[in-house]
């Protein structure tokens, strides 16, 4: 059987890409090696220059010391003393470690030299004439013993005439071993630095690998592209925020919903740039989830949800998900209406069950006349109520809303009445009707709750008035509660609530949002029921 796993020549030629941590180790190590080489070369150069300068100063100092000796001056003036001077100078050379000490006369002829055979000959190197002119200097030249660093000093007679010169030198070949010994030290330290750099590179590579969860650059790039593709594919608008409200991520759908340019996805923004009217509310109490919250922005109704972001167990901002009010919202509203209708049936069932029990008990007791009277009262009351609503409220949706609120209030022992002066025709615009249902429903619910809280001191009552002019819809909702307090602005913030529980605190905010969306207004006053009166004006 043939081996199907055999690699092709092309696969052998293609090298497997190095992992990111391997690249970091190579890069950091290579950088440290390069720095060590450059640093070593620089230190070597500085060491050589420093050593040459030090030796040059030493040669100049020794030469100056010899040139000022009386016996040297006499020897230059009296050649008979040359032998003794040659021996003394040799002792000085050995003591100072110099490779040579040469004394020349005013013609640059050697009168003292370590090699006696070269005494009497001219000094070589071409660097003696300046000393015979009175200069003291250090030079690098090649003499009879080889290339050397020399210190040249003129010798003056007692009458201040130049009668010769002294040349003290160290051969370059004798200096090189000193430099090489220093170089070995530099090399050892360089190897230590390289070794430490490898350890540091490995540590950095491991930290980077752990920080990016072991992902490689191509994987990170692919994940980033996939994330953008996913965010821009979903039909919900997504806004990721840090705790301060700065936008971390914004998808294209969010820009479309909020009528913002697509270039916003690449700009530095805050939530106030996208939702200026609601930014303060959305950034408060970030740990609390908000699901299916309806608000008005960019001239449209938007359904928004807010979730807390958790990174490694720590709060790290919030995520906003939004979508415009479309067919899904319409279905949601229909479901809400069905639930409200079911609640109405439950209330009526409970109420009629009690009355049926009462009627059954009267029949069993032989009180047939009383039973017939109760049946007549109940039938007459319900028919009268429905007839009154249909007669005054021609819109069936609002009539159904009021019937449902009537039965809810009745179950909670709250008397809800419709003002006899109420009169309202059918609302033909569906967008206005949806807002009216939300506004009126929230106001009646709040009024019922307010009346219940004050029921210990007074009868719980709620009165509703609906009316219209040729251009405006008018609604009044009054209760027998304790009122809304002096600060009327705070009651329309999402966090305000006189009730306990996380589900409360956004009813009047929804009222304000819907009023803003349809250009309506609201007035707050006092009711003759001793509670609050909220009057709503909505242009048709």
Could you explain how this protein is built, in words?
The chain is of the alpha+beta class and 540 residues long. Helix content is 49%, strand content 21%. The protein is built from 15 helices and 15 strands. The chain has a five-stranded antiparallel beta sheet with strand order 2-1-5-4-3. Strands 7-6-10-9-8 form a five-stranded antiparallel beta sheet. Strands 11-12-13-15-14 form a five-stranded mixed beta sheet, with helices on one face. A hairpin with a 2-residue loop joins strand 9 (300-311) and strand 10 (314-324). The chain is rod-shaped, with a radius of gyration of 52 Å. It starts with 8 loop residues before the first helix and ends with a strand. The model is unreliable at 9-15 and 495-505 (pLDDT under 50).
Q: Can you give keywords for this protein?
A:
alpha+beta; 21% strand; five-stranded antiparallel beta sheet; rod-shaped; 15 helices; 540 residues
* Number of DSSP helical runs: 15
- Structural shape: rod-shaped
**Biggest beta sheet attributes:** 5 strands, antiparallel
Stretches where pLDDT is under 50 for at least 5 consecutive residues are: 9-15, 495-505
Q: Classify the beta-strand content into a percent band.
A: 15-25%
Total beta strand runs: 15
Q: Spell out the helices and strands N to C.
A: HHHHEEHEEEHHEEHHHEEEHHHEHEEHEE
How confident is the prediction overall: mean pLDDT?
Answer: 79
**Helix proportion of residues, in percent?**
40-55%
Gyration radius, in Å: 52 Å
SSE class: alpha+beta
The strand order across the widest sheet is: 2-1-5-4-3
What is the end-to-end distance?
Answer: 86 Å
